[in-house]
Amino acid sequence: MKKSKIWIIIGIVGILLLVLTFVSPLLIMYYAEEQYFIDQYKKNKTAFEDIKDELFLALERENLSELNLVICYDDENGRLLQHYDRTTYSVDYSHPIDANRESYSIVDKSFGD
User: pLDDT (tens digit, 0 to 9) for every residue of the chain, 113 residues total?
Assistant: First the structure.
């Protein structure tokens, strides 16, 4: 009876160690990536703030929902702020962004690929 309890405990510990072996790297990668973005924000806070201010002005000016906004790049028009209609999945508003180009470049580089 005692031997079977010991083997059950050893089995449970073994399974826990096996699970931790596979889950730990995933957790480490997740939090390392999150910390990378936090560090990039802290390092380039002024650029992020410039862009945030420009987006809020566009939201206010056009009375748009923040959740439907996308920033994209067009060779002809430069950076664009686009608003998507979630019901039709089409662009119902497109506006060039006049924010400081350097700020956008800094933020783009902060996110890597």
Answer: 677 888 888 999 999 988 888 888 887 777 777 888 888 889 989 888 888 887 787 778 777 665 676 777 666 766 666 777 666 767 766 766 665 577 777 877 777 65
The model's pTM is: 0.53
Strand order in the sheet with 90-96: 69-74, 78-85, 90-96
In this structure, how many other beta carbons lie within 10 angstroms of the beta carbon of residue 82? 15
